[in-house]
Amino acid sequence: MFTTEKVVSILRACGLMIADQRRLERRPGRYLPVPSGLHPRLAALLKERYPKGLYAHQARGIEAALAGHSVCLSTATASGKSLVFVAAAADLLLRDPAACVVAFYPARALIQDQMRKWRELLQPLGLRWGYIDGGVGMRERLRIVREHRLLLMTPDVTHAWLLPDLTEPPVRSFLDRLAIVILDEAHVYDGVFGSNFALFMRRLRAVSGVRQCISSTATLGDPEAFIATLTGFKPVVLGPESDGAPAAAKTLILARPDEEAGEAGAGGGRRRKGEFDVIVEFVRACAAAADSPFLGFADSRRMVERIVSASVHRQAPGSAGGAGGAGAEVAGATGAAGPQEAAAALEPEAALESEVAREPGAAVEPEAEGVAPAPDAEPALQGLLPYRAGYEDEDRHAIQEALTRGELRGVISTSALELGIDVGEVDLVVLLQPPSSVKAFWQRVGRAGRVRDGVCVVLDPSGTLADGLARYLDRPVEANRLYLDNRYLQYANALCAAVELNGLGAGGGSLARFESLPASFSRMLANELEPREAIPPDLAPLKQRALAGPHREFPLRNAVEREFQILGWGDRQLGSVTYSQALREAYPGAVYYYMARPYRVTHFDFGKARIRVHAERFYTTDPILQRMAFPRWPEGLLGLWTGEGGAFVAEAEMQVSERCTGFVETRGSAKERHEYGPESPYFTRPLNRFFETTGVVWWAPGVRLDELAAQAILGTFCDECGVQERDVGLGQFTSRLSPTGQGEVHGWCIYDATYGSLRLTRELAERFGEMARAAVSRLEDGSPARAQLERLAEALEGLRPAPLPQADLALPAPGQDDDWQVVVARGEPAMLMKGEASEEVVVEGYRYTPRGIVYDLRHPDASVRWQVSYDRIQPIHGVTRLVRWNLVTGEEQPL
């Protein structure tokens, strides 16, 4: 096992010093009698099982549930929260022979793990339960619903299958009798998933009889307000002060590189190791010393894959790809043995629009020399493995099982293993990067020392935690972020709700059931039930996609982005990515890692949402990304702060263009830059993601920041406000007019990376001066970037809120004026909207036809005539010049 002494020894051997150390002492249990209001058979069983009584929060939680209250249990990990909702469900099923219960788990693996707890309590009482997740066949699902009153389900399958099938008698009967909804691991419902789930819960309540919600989580800031927003039920909250469960002791260690222990460099000096090398060396040392499994956490999918790949490969320096040198970010994973990859052919799909990457010569066979082969049969699970979302279910399950049985030395995971999945007794948890949120810190720390004392190490290779562990121990847990005003999420859910209500024959009279949502949702839904208004152009593509079934097209976790399936040899499924993830991990020509094995992307098919790969050597690639933001002001301003000389900070609605123009490939110490284009063997043009969101821009006269300085502001904001860097983006902005009327401005912008926005950057705008000053300390003394930030902070001193200016002219929307129409002026750039494959074009002209207004676009081949409908062209805020055009006379007026 990993003791504190053993871990400290490993740290020192890796040249790491202890910068802070704290101990969380053991906590004794506090007990209360089994509640007398429980059904006699259940009460007798609990008294037999727990002769000391129940933990204090368990007893109080059961009492509140029996009284008909919704309940939120927000106590520590491994505190027995599940007993409360299992007992409440069992009591209802015993008392009411018609009542039904559904328990939602945010992951299929969690259902399998938690069934043991349901079985232990329900089986002796003669109660039955069923479970339905994505792995249960369609025919079986209706039988399970028909034969069980308690269902364990993922919200995903409920959304994608149960709600669209309301006309099926077993489904209709179950929902009519549904009384309690249970949410385990409620903290997971955050951001896009949480906002979508909140809309989903209102849809579920609109078509069922549910009257009570019981939720549980170890980490929630302001749980009462959050659960009320998430579910519409106001809960009784039992938080840390109510926690009666005993807890083992934990030692928390903050470690960073010892400046005196660097590697020997040229001339006899000491060379400081790179941050990635520090992480990899410590992971390798822990794996080598492990006599029981350990867990490591990193914040991104790519980082998890690269850490494992580099750690394992450096144990086998003679394998393909070379050692890569001390500075190589990734070397490979020739020693890793992953579970069997599933071989399942995808069903044909209608191709909307397709561009296929051309293969650079013959594909490398999996068995080719120097290439790690894809396994034909499941090998023994051992060593070090990665774990993240996007894996195939059988692979994730195999890793969990091997970890639980103690067959692995360790697992390096994203937040996917923060869930309360039973992974056996883990003595050591390593946070390989300082987590950006207090919530993530406690979720990860809670995975160690559930029975016996544990050790938790926070690696701080860049020395950013100036206040040590106090950053996490002395701060409250952040509130989850839900944003129900996202119009894209609203419309996707309105399309689903319309199908559901039409299936019930409920019609527009059911809109009152959605009164706790923004009024815009009800307007969208009413228009779907009884169409009276034209659909806005930016929502029209969603309506088109919904023809294939909105529940299928708009999964709960992805906003409105399509999901791409990654396929290897023989159609082996190698996980999935959204389009935004593909721009970072699986773009044409990329080396994509799955289970620490490298694969080259050879085909990128938009129409079928498929990415094809073949096995590759242990190289790495990084995308060349260009990010530009185009704020919409004055009408899109959400907040404005002004200073001297026209300086300003603004939160605004904006368009964002993320273009992947190629990639840089690293082979050992050699780097090669590859640009997409007509001569590229991978792709003929850049990939572009163009979307509406919100963000924060800043500008001060005479102050220009380089990317390093802007990145320091982004990092400070994420650390201070508990925002994951993957959820926001950093880019440059440009506008022909400042919101203060100063003329053309350009600079840096931090934006929300979600279609339609979650308003994640709102706090940055409100505290920008504070963030800019704090960012100075992240940069080295005397560096140009630090000097730039100091000038920026000085220029923004005294910022004060300003009234939001009004637009000079209200632009008529299509159909508002029969004679005049706002159009893109001739010769102006604009965006051609094609779902994920949007691209920048130049408008040559416009015409009125029997089909409506069409634009003539400039084509690379002058002999080609290219025209598209009016609603497929979107002006670029602050860049595209618009004019008013009279459909009758052809007259134009400038705006």
From TrEMBL:
Residues 62-238 form the Helicase ATP-binding domain. Residues 314-377 are annotated as: Disordered. Residues 328-377 have a biased composition (Low complexity). InterPro entries: DEAD/DEAH_box_helicase_dom (IPR011545), Helicase_ATP-bd (IPR014001), Helicase_C-like (IPR001650), P-loop_NTPase (IPR027417). Residues 278-495 form the Helicase C-terminal domain. The keyword ATP-binding applies. The keyword ATP-binding applies. Keywords: ATP-binding, Helicase, Hydrolase, Nucleotide-binding. One of its GO terms (molecular function) is helicase activity. Pfam families: DEAD, Helicase_C. Coiled coil: none annotated. This is DEAD/DEAH box helicase. It comes from Geochorda subterranea.
